[in-house]
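Lab notebook: predicted structure, single chain.

Context: the supervisor wants predicted structures on file for every construct in the current expression panel, including those that have not yet been purified. This is the next one on the list. No modifications to the sequence; it matches the entry in the shared construct table.
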Amino acid sequence: MNIRVIVPSAASLPFVRAAGDHIESLWSIVESGDWSADNQLGRAYADACLDYMRQSEFPGLLAHVLTEMIGSRRLGGVEIGFLHGIAVRAMVE
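Prediction complete. Output recorded below exactly as produced.
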């Protein structure tokens, strides 16, 4: 199953890199080097991801995003903020 074919509308997410409707990466981020700012950005990305999953009724998107995040072999402020944001909303909702 190819995620890039299933949910082309995910191209509108701020952490997705796309050329038109063709999704090239589900985790394409730029870090600022400021841990606090990057962490806040990651939390905003988590909110966008969860809102998209709810609206599109496609909860599987999270697994695909995490697969690409892990594949990037990077765990900086944006990634930590994203994971924290997902965890906080999971505990509240």
